[in-house]
Amino acid sequence: MSDEFGFFLLLMSNGILIGLMYSLIALGFVLVYKATEAINFAQGEFVMIAGFVVVASLLAYRAPLWLAIVLGLAAMVAFGFGLERVVLRKLIGRPIIAVVMATIGLAAVLRGIGPLTWGAETKNLALPISDEPFVLGPLFIPPIQILGAAVSLAFLAAFGWFFLKSRKGIAMRAVADSQQVAMAMGINVQRYFALAWAMTGIVSALGGVVWGSLLGVDVHLALVGFKVFPVVILGGLDSIPGAIVGGLIVGLVENVAAGYVDPYVGGGTKDFAPYVLMILALMIRPYGIFGKRIIERV
Amino acid sequence: MIHRECGVLKTTYEADMALYPLPIARWTVAAIVVLMFGVVPFVLHEYYLSIINLVAIAVIGALGLNILVGYTGQISVGHGAFMSVGAYTAANFAVRLESPWPVNLLAGGLMAALVGAIVGIPSLRIKGLYLAIATLAGQLIIEWTINHVTFISGGVQASIEVPRPEVFGFRIASQGEMYFFLLGFVVLAIVGAMNLIRTRVGRAFIAIRDHDIAAEIIGINIFRYKLLAFAISSFYAGVTGVLYTYYLGVANYEQFQINVSIDYLAMIIIGGLGSVLGSVFGAIFVTMLPIVIRWVMEAFGGLFFSEQAVLNIIPNLRLILFGGLIILFLVVEPEGLNRLWRNIRSYFRVWPFAY
After folding, report:
1. What is the pLDDT of residue B1?
2. Can you tell me the ipTM of this complex?
3. A 28-47 residues with CB below 8 A of B?
4. Shortest CA distance to B77 belongs to which of A166, A111, A39?
5. What residues are paired with A135 via a beta bridge?
6. Which of A25, B43, B78, B207 has the lowest CB atom count within 10 Å?
7. Which residues contact A262 (CB under 8 A, 6 or more apart)?
8. What is the pTM of this model?
9. Residue closest to B190 by CA, chosen among B352, B60, B321
10. Burial of A50 (0-12, 13-18, 19+ CB in 10 A)
């Protein structure tokens, strides 16, 4: 096997694992959009806040890891419920730009609260797994990426089951389909809105743990949120399989592009390539690979 | 002279369209002009003038964004990038061709208008959320391109120094001189925006915002007018970028990142969507917010926190208040400061009577 091909394989394997970790964050976005049709521009900040909560309980309060993760989950669920109750419920029925701007404002608030409460320096979120990468021929795989990918897959499967089989999941799909009909069938729509935000909180908490241990926890952790948009546009805004496929595509494209283009342009291709892909997707197939084909054209 | 109307008593279209519905409006505007051109620059210290200069630049950008978001109903998260296009075009013209500032300004504005119209093309197929994401992509792609193409920016993380503008052979160097330079553009921008929305074009924009399908049915070419809205709005943004470059003396891509786009969106939401006066209020408010926070924290922060903590608190407190205010205005007063101002005015108009 030539070095050239080995390099390509390395980029691919990294891309797949990172892509699955993107899927985890995108899943939080999709959950909310599917149920409430609200667009969350603060998804990255959710992940950052969760990372801060977990790392603070680990370092400042010397909690064991499992307790820290439980605390992170509980905090994010409470946060999701509270957010829905205080802000987003008031914006139901308002133009879409109002929800977009409210979450942009929320993102700013969270980016301020995080460093203000827990300090601006980068904190190391150490998981009890080794730092030694697995070496398989040319492949070079850090265990944290495998863990992240595994968590993503487990959650994607769990939420897939939830929406297809469980009573609550079916009710949530009904709410997403038509709020009025759902109400007529005796579904408490507002409760499902709150549930959707709480579920996003859970996903963000786990995203915070895996991304936090990969990148370290500080305000820049929120930047992973920018990758959510290419993922969900490619996969389809309201599709869970779409989140996986979109995540994989974005992970692969950005790694391969970074590997081959970066040496010529001086870095930064990673943040650039997915958006070019997304613009193409918006031009050709705006509803994504798996999304519902309802897009209003004027 | 200071009387107000007691009802709608207009009998001609001209009276209805007039910029000054009553003599008092004309007197107010005259008073503000005298204050801004005649009193403020000679009374205030250079430092305060530099703050007003920042506000002036923000007013122009906010007006432009309000034409797009407030009047035409198309969201853009990419205005920071349009400003950088203007800034770098002007900087390159100034350095490579050594052209005078009016040429640079116009070139920057037109280039931004062109790029804005290109980024606006998706608005013809998609709207709302998708347009927000498409313009976000535009922002990030333009940012990356400018930073990485050496011909434009002189290399990664580089900045271009621009010479000071010269007006009739007079070199503008101090903040006081810059004040007059910028204020002239603010007047042009306000008058331009107020007149634009009274014309056929402006009415078409409003029709598209209110109901695009209905607008198309009454014969408005949506394709043309949406692109025109993007172009005009980006022209304002480009001019803002050029003026900011002249204000700073350097063109640097870090001054035009995504947070700038969000700042300007915040201005028009806090100020009031679809109102010229609201853009001015919003620009003043959002520009002053961090400055006031710094004053307050430097004055009183030391009483409660250590010096180190204050340095950490100031930028974060700014973000929290900034985001919190966006949310507060969206939930409580969607029409922004402009609405609050109108409420106060209509209260005092009939004071001391209830109505």
Report:
1. 44
2. 0.84
3. 39
4. A39
5. A140
6. B43
7. A268, A269, A270
8. 0.88
9. B60
10. buried
